[in-house]
Target: Progestin and adipoq receptor family member 4
Amino acid sequence: MVRYSTPAYRDSEDDHQGGHQLKILSPLPRVPWDLPPLPSGAGAGVSPPSVRQCHRDPQDVRHEAATCRPTRSQKRRSVADAKEYTQRPVEEERERSLSSSQGSRPPRLSVSRHEAPPYLVGNPFILSGYRRCITLREACQGLFYQHNSWLDTWTSVFSWVHSHVLLFVASYVYGVFRRDWLSAIVFASFYLHVAWIHAPASIVCHLVGNAGISQHVYELCLELDYLGIFIASVILAFTQAVFVYPWWGTLLNVLLAMGLTAYLVTHIRQVVLCHIGRLRMLLEIGSLYQLPLWFQAYQDCNSPSIPSSLPPSLLCACGMTGSLVVGGLTYALHFPERFAPGKFDVWWNSHALMHVWINVAMLSEFLFLLHMFLRRS
Model:
């Protein structure tokens, strides 16, 4: 922009008498004129501004400033425009990253370990596949592209499907709901603890909590996941004990599980944020629903009426305890990604393998219930 300045002009007496002569006085302070450059020859015949036009009265300036104050609606509109201006670069960056994505893995939503939020980096051997979602819709879209919680989510979905398959076998093949009310309650509770308590909480935790929306959402979903584990453990303490213990033994086992669950719920924030604390908590509460299986296996091994040296109750107890121990050690030792960092970021890392072993434990628990139901019938 070219700035023009003009000397000060004043009308002469000849000008008042009808003439056109102007006297040039000593130059006043230079006045900037923010005007575009004029072409050569333009502006001929245009009289320069007078002194009154260049130097305005301060009282007139104050009056115009008072009358031109912005209203409340104009202020709100300016604040909204400022917010839109600050958010526009973020939206443009997101649109640009999504438009440049290749395949089914948007680079904006799947980042490396150094770009991920610090609260998501709990496993030092997972180097990529972290997410940085902003909305719930972006988090739910994680079902359809690969990231380091993708297989964890689908193994939890498999647990939900697995529970429905076991319910179909129990109801239509063996008719457990047509025998007596106690068997119906036991198998319905077993189905409930997997299909509508444990599996949905796990799906929400891995799909939404690990999406990188915020640390508050992550901790809330993690607490919801472990709260589902606590409630499911109380239900398992009832279902595994009802065919083994007398009524008072079953009641005592359930009360112990409820007391331990109440203690863990009051300290859930300190427990779930510690990697070793989670494993210790699961072992403590898991022992309450494993004791009935080992008690029945001990009785069957010492019973002369059972000729087999490996009764089904012993196989079920070994299958459930062994799968939980192997899954816990796999999760605690970060196997196998510890020996090949970056190779198991998406497929078959320690967390996904732990979910597989949990499904094996669930199958062993169901087989034990079915075996005790057939013996009772």
User: Anything to note?
Assistant: Residues 1-36 form one domain. Strands lie at 3-4, 9-11, 22-24, 33-34, 111-112, 128-130. The mean pLDDT is 77.
